[in-house]
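User: Hi! I'm working on a homework problem where we have to compare a predicted structure to a textbook description. Could you give me the structure for the chain below?
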Amino acid sequence: MKFMAEYRDPIRAAKIIDSIRRICTRPWVLMEICGGQTHSIVRYGIDQMLPDKIELVHGPGCPVCVTPIDKIDCAIVLAKIPNLIFCTFGDMLRVPGSHQDLFSAKAQGADVRIVYSPMDALQLAERNPDREVVFFAIGFETTAPANAMAIYMADKKGIQNFSVLVSHVLVPPAMESILSAAENRVQGFLAAGHVCAVMGYHEYAPISAKYKTPIVITGFEPLDLLEGIYLLVRQLEEGRFEVENQYTRAVSEGGNPVAQDILKDVFVIVKKEWRGLGAIDGSGLTLSEAYRKFDAEIRFREKLAERELSVSPVNCISGLILQGIRKPHDCEAFDRICHPDNPLGATMVSNEGACAAYWKYRRFEGKLTKE
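Assistant: Happy to help. Predicted structure tokens:
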């Protein structure tokens, strides 16, 4: 606890806030990429302690939030196949598909199991050789190496009844998509430290230079975020657009080469659909040719072809929230018909979602504003 307390020291926080206040002369809009950062910002009221000139908007860095609705529909179809065990992380169970979620499918008899790692799913396949086991492989560069390792091990062990439903996405192309949009307001990024711990941050320099936007690699504790905001504001005020690393205790420029090697072996980069952002070139991963035999969408293509067309929920602005264009309190459905017990969009379902953060820490503030 002592270690954590050092990054939540209120005296140091006050000093950094004062430093930000002294250098900030103009309005700036900054985006944190990661949903974990969003929760820290909202939980500790960091945005409310900053000078009024600084606005924080929330980015698409939540793996559950950006998994497209079509992939949820695919997962539900797979889960209902007789004699199939569908494995997923717990936070995917209540993400709404077009007509239901995995939790409802499980209640109707589908064998949906929560696992804590892809290796758990692989072991389940080994223990049940007479049944097909599918793992829902979602997330960013942070979770992709572990999923790649499970597929690599399945191949090495010759396990035939294991496959994965892949929905991996990559952060840098999403940042470019946000910056290139006509309605973009983002002037600086707080990049996600755990993504950079895997991939390094050499990919960010061309983006920063092309869009004249500073990027600061940042951790997740209050002092990490405040220092990151200070570095961003200092760059903007000085007219600089560079990549800086606040999270030096965990991130190096080269990242983790072992993790990168397994990603290059198992996956290839493709155009990918994001929930709320649409299709983005070069923003996703799919299985490489050598491992395509583990692709659940190929193995069960006939069953998946029978599914109905996916339908996005109405009255949900999560796509705009993920782009930093709107905030949860702007949504008419927020805390009225959309809440954690009845989420319309993934941003309300996920523990890292911006809507869930506002509902948990700011729900009454929004009502007061509207009234």
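For your comparison, note the following. The longest strand covers residues 278-287. The chain has a mean pLDDT of 93. Good luck with the assignment!
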